Write a sequence for this structure.
C-alpha cells in the first residue's frame, strides 16, 4: 500500500525530573531531507537520531524538534551564574582588549550578557539513560507520523483508482474513435477526388495505397496499447509494499508522452477532445503522486 509523505507525530517523556516534548512532521520532497533540533545537552545524540529517522521514514522533508517543557514554571526555576565560564570569557576579552588597544570597559552587564554565563534551571545530564528516553519518545512520534502517512496513503490510493478507471475509459473511447478514422478518411478522400477527376474512374490499387498511408498516420492503436500497459503497472505499484512514488511519477511521464503522440495524430475534433480530457486526468494524478513516498 502506498504511503503519503505528509504527517505529524508527537510524544512526551520524563527525563531527570523534567518533561521532554518531541514533535515530528514531514512534507513531500524529492529526497530525504532531515532537520533535527535538540536541547544543548542532548545535541550529541543527533547522529543516531538522524539514522533512526532515515531508517523509519525514508523520503520526505522531515523536521524533528525536542524541547524541555512543563514540570515547573519558568520563573520558579533556579538561576545560577557559571563563574568558571565567566572567568574564561574575561581572560579572553582582556587579551583581545590588549591586542587591539581598546579603551572599552569590561563591565558586569557585558559579562552577564555573554552566552551561558547566566544559567536558568538545570537540564538533565545526557547519559545512556537520556538516549534511551529520547529514542523511546522519538519512536512513539515516528509511529504516530507513520500511521498518519498510511491513512493518507489509503485516501490517495482510492483517488488514484478512480482516476485510473476514468483514464481507461478514455483510452477505450480513443481506440473506438481511432478504428473508425481510416474508413472516414477513405470517404473524405473520394469526395475530394470526384470533382477533380470529372467522371474518370479511380485506380483501386492507388486508392488502396493512399488509404493505407492515411490509416498508418491516423492509427493510435500503439499508443493506446502502451497506455494500457502503463496503467497496469500503475495499479500494481499501488499495492506494492515498497515505496513507489518515483516509479509512479516515471510511469505518468511515459503516459503523458503517449497522450501527446495521440494528440499529434488526432486531426479530428472528437479524438482531440478525448486526448485533452485524458491529459487533464493524467495531470491531476501527477499532482497527487508528488506526495507519495
Amino acid at each position: 500500500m502506498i504511503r503519503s509523505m505528509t504527517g505529524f507525530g508527537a510524544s512526551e517523556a520524563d527525563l531527570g525530573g523534567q518533561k521532554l516534548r518531541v514533535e515530528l512532521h514531514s512534507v513531500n520532497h524529492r529526497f530525504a531531507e532531515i532537520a533535527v533540533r535538540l536541547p544543548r545537552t542532548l545535541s550529541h545524540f543527533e547522529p543516531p537520531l538522524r539514522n533512526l529517522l532515515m531508517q523509519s521514514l525514508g523520503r520526505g522533508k522531515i523536521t524533528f524538534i525536542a524541547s524541555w517543557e512543563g514540570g515547573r514554571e519558568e520563573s520558579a526555576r533556579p538561576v545560577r551564574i557559571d563563574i568558571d565560564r565567566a572567568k574564561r570569557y574575561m581572560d579572553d576579552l582582556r587579551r583581545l582588549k590588549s591586542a587591539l588597544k581598546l579603551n572599552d570597559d569590561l563591565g558586569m552587564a557585558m559579562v552577564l550578557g555573554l552566552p551561558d554565563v547566566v544559567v536558568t534551571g538545570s537540564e538533565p545530564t545526557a547519559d545512556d539513560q537520556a538516549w534511551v528516553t529520547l529514542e523511546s519518545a522519538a519512536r512513539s512520534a515516528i509511529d504516530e507520523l507513520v500511521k498518519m502517512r498510511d491513512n493518507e496513503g489509503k485516501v490517495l490510493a482510492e483517488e488514484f483508482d478512480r482516476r485510473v478507471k476514468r483514464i481507461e475509459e478514455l483510452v477505450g473511447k480513443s481506440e473506438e474513435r481511432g478504428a473508425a478514422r481510416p474508413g472516414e478518411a477513405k470517404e473524405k478522400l473520394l469526395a475530394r477526388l470526384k470533382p477533380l477527376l470529372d467522371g474518370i474512374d479511380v485506380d483501386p490499387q492507388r486508392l488502396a495505397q493512399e488509404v493505407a498511408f492515411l490509416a498508418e498516420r491516423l492509427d493510435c492503436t500503439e499508443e493506446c496499447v502502451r497506455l494500457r500497459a502503463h496503467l497496469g503497472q500503475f495499479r500494481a505499484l499501488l499495492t506494492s509494499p515498497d515505496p513507489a512514488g518515483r516509479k509512479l511519477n516515471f510511469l505518468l511521464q511515459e503516459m503523458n508522452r503517449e497522450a501527446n503522440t495521440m494528440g499529434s495524430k488526432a486531426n479530428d475534433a472528437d479524438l482531440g477532445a478525448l486526448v485533452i480530457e485524458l491529459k487533464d486526468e493524467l495531470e491531476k494524478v501527477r499532482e497527487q503522486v508528488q506526495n507519495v513516498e
User: Anything to note?
Assistant: The two ends are 11 Å apart (CA to CA). The first strand starts at residue 7 and ends at 15. The chain has eight helices and six strands.
